[in-house]
Amino acid sequence: MDKYPVVLLVHGSGGISGYVDDWAKEFNKLGIAVFILDSFGGRGLDKINNHQGKLGRLVITADAYRALDVLAKNKRVDPKRIAIMGFSRGGQVSLEVIGMTNAASNTQAPRSVETRTIEPLTWVLDGPRPTSPAVSRASIPE
To answer: The pTM is what?
Structure first.
């Protein structure tokens, strides 16, 4: 079984929009799997553009850490080739994750991600859909 590099995509305050799927398709063309984190759908939100207080950035950051943890343990993912990319607020989350990871590992460049476990998030590349607030979907290169 092939182990894929994977990019975790983190949406912005407007939720998952067409551009997120566009990036997923581009990464798939390069042979890179994509895991799209949806921190809104499972919490009954679709966007928070005008109401940023509805969901704190730290909550989305925790969702991202959990997704990275799940990805690193998945048998179809190469745990040494996991990246994170975000858009707008998701970009802030991505920078926080990278910054915290570097601080935790005391390095100057990104390394494997040290993670903290939060709510169960089980669906990745194959498996049952999650029941936790952070709902995600994956795409695999053809």
So the answer is: 0.74
